[in-house]
């Protein structure tokens, strides 16, 4: 399989949903009409990535903002490499080698125009995950250390009424 030559670029100035679309992640809700909802996922590796790992890196960014450069194209490079080794084969699997039901259908005119596959598209994934982290915003009173220390969290899926207990153990 060839690496796509040109994919739409998602800037960090765009919102979280644009970054999720660029990563091909399918949510059960959307941000239509400017309404900002929290993204809802059903695939456990995506839940773990989005609810635990991405916020932890965002927390590090908030904590160390004085020494980290948001414009550094290599920001969190090693950490993203580690995330991709752990989640890439499950979330962006080679077609036919794993489920891709949690991913959008690639479509012209969207930010996900061609299937992204790990490890082939690791550089694209790393760039888009970095953009997702940079697009997040903190609220007044955000407990930064709690974001960084996230290792255990219980998520109640509002539509399915299913409880997933997220721990450091593998969920896939």
From the helix content, strand content and strand pairing, which structural class follows? mainly alpha
What's the number of extended β-strand segments? 2
Beta-strand share of residues: under 5%
Order of helices and strands: HHHHHEE
Can you tell me the number of structural domains? 1
The 3D shape can be described as: globular
Alpha-carbon distance between the two ends: 25 Å
User: Number of helical runs?
Assistant: 5
Kindly report the average pLDDT value.
Answer: 83
What is the rounded Rg?
A: 16 Å
Oligomer: single chain
In which range does the helix fraction lie? 25-40%
Largest sheet: 2 strands, antiparallel
Largest sheet strand order: 1-2
Taking pLDDT < 50 over at least 5 consecutive residues as the criterion, the unreliable ranges are 152-172
Descriptive notes:
With 172 residues, the chain is mainly alpha-helical. It has one domain (16-166). Helices cover 35% and strands 5% of the residues. The protein has five helices and two strands, in the order H-H-H-H-H-E-E. The chain has helices spanning 16-22, 44-63, 77-91, 122-135, 144-148; strands at residues 153-156, 163-166. It has a two-stranded antiparallel ribbon with strand order 1-2. Strand 1 (153-156) and strand 2 form a beta hairpin. Helix 1 (16-22) packs antiparallel against helix 4, helix 2 packs across helix 4 and helix 3 (77-91) crosses helix 4. The longest helix has 20 residues, at 44-63. It is globular and about 45 Å long. The model is unreliable at 152-172 (pLDDT under 50).
């Amino acid at each position: 399989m060839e690496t796509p030559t040109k994919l739409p670029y998602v800037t960090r100035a765009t919102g979280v949903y644009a970054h999720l679309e660029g990563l091909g992640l399918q949510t059960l809700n959307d941000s239509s009409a400017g309404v900002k909802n929290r993204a809802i996922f059903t695939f456990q590796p995506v839940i773990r990535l989005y609810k635990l790992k991405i916020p932890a890196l965002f927390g590090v960014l908030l904590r160390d903002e004085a020494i980290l450069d948001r414009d550094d194209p290599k920001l969190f490079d090693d950490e993203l490499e580690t995330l991709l080794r752990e989640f890439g084969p499950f979330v962006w699997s080679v077609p036919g080698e794993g489920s891709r039901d949690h991913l959008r259908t690639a479509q012209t005119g969207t930010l996900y125009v061609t299937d992204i596959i790990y490890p082939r598209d690791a550089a694209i994934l790393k760039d888009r995950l970095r953009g997702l982290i940079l697009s997040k915003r903190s609220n007044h009173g955000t407990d930064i250390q709690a974001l960084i220390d996230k290792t255990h969290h219980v998520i109640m899926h509002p539509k399915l009424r299913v409880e997933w207990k997220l721990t450091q153990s593998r969920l896939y």
